[in-house]
């Protein structure tokens, strides 16, 4: 039986069971959960960087967003609150739509 030892989405055990396979799971403590979510974010980011098509890229970004929402919840924020903070920062500093690449700033 292959060992995965990683955080998976909530319905994965049921999907495995429906395929006729057996599985073993455990529930994480909050500290373990936070650590595993951070690892999952790195995994999803890597998968995004390796995406070959726009469709794959969007799928991986959606997975990454799900992880971000879970991390936000651990930090006491809802997706709506997270979006509010994102919008505030965009209003104050802008977004990344203009593709501005800062080369250098002269020291005085």
Q: Which features characterize this protein?
A:
108 residues; mainly alpha
Q: Compute the average pLDDT.
A: 96
**Uncertain segments:** none
The succession of helices and strands, N to C, reads HHHH
Main β-sheet, in a few words? none
Instruction: Specify the overall morphology.
Output: elongated
Strand content: under 5%
Q: How far apart are the termini?
A: 63 Å
Number of strands: 0
**Helix/sheet category:** mainly alpha
Q: What's the total helix number? A: 4
Helix content: 55-70%
Radius of gyration: 19 Å
Q: What do you see in this structure?
A:
The chain is mainly α. The protein has a domain at 28-93. Helices cover 59% and strands 0% of the residues. The protein has helices at 12-18, 30-50, 54-74, 79-93. Helix 2 packs antiparallel against helix 3 (54-74). The longest helix has 21 residues, at 30-50. The protein is elongated, with a radius of gyration of 19 Å.
Task: Describe the secondary-structure layout.
Elements: H1 12-18, H2 30-50, H3 54-74, H4 79-93
Helix pairs in contact: 2-3
